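As a warm-up, study this chain.
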Amino acid sequence: MRLFPALLLGLASLLLSVPAAASNTPAQSATAGVREAERQRALALNERDIELLRRLIGGNYRHIETNGRLRSKTEFLQALARDEYRIRDYALEDMKVEILDNDVAIVTGTWRAARLDLGQPVPSRGRYVRVWTRHPEGWRIALHQGTEIRTAAQPARQETRAPQ
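Now compare it with the structure written out below.
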């Protein structure tokens, strides 16, 4: 007879979990959309897919590099096409998405990559913040700012360009 209470408890927990799993709030949907756009951005950076990046980046985009240089959308895409960034194997280590009013997202996290110095890959790691805005055609990046993480023993490099 102990089987019956256990069966009822299991059935009740199953029924109570279904509505929670089935409900998808606007914030959850927006978060999923931004995460997918971030995934596409990382893929496009690794593959140097300028057209995909052009679609993901908003018209008034501002890109602040790890060395402090400010670039517009056009300047950023041209530099990437010329391979000025020399970044390979770019990956996001973690990501936090905060949705504001369902149309703006602030994304923060850390990235890792290999930067080519004299043809040799040098590990690189940093933090980023990106602001995404929702448009009829999807999420678009409005602002990117990256900061390289260095240990106290690492000197600042003359030129550190990472499109994190």
